[in-house]
Design goal:
This protein has 100 residues and is an all-alpha fold. The protein has one domain. Helices cover 80% and strands 0% of the residues. α2 runs antiparallel to α3 and α2 packs parallel to α4. It is elongated, with a radius of gyration of 14 Å. The protein starts with a helix and ends in a 6-residue tail after the last helix.
Length: 100
Amino acid sequence: MSLGVILIQRQDRWSWLVSCLGVLVLVNGLIHLIQGFLLASYASGLASGVILWIPLGSWSLWRSRSWDTRAKFWTGLLVGLGLEIPLAWIALNAGGISAP
């Protein structure tokens, strides 16, 4: 994530990374929230997901949508989802929790 911030600051062509990282962070927080509901108990990362990651991811997507080009925004969004879906699937299955 730090490398992404450095690249974005140095060159505008990397600005799609804001929406990519935003969707990664947002979906990760949402997965922890959904996990907490499904397990009906505290799940690891639930508090940080709700307090930190969901707002940060939402804000990043909102900001990148307002100042980035449509093509860069959607590129970052699709790349982020393309990375998050398999990673979430692997993490959920490694922990013994099957994805719905």
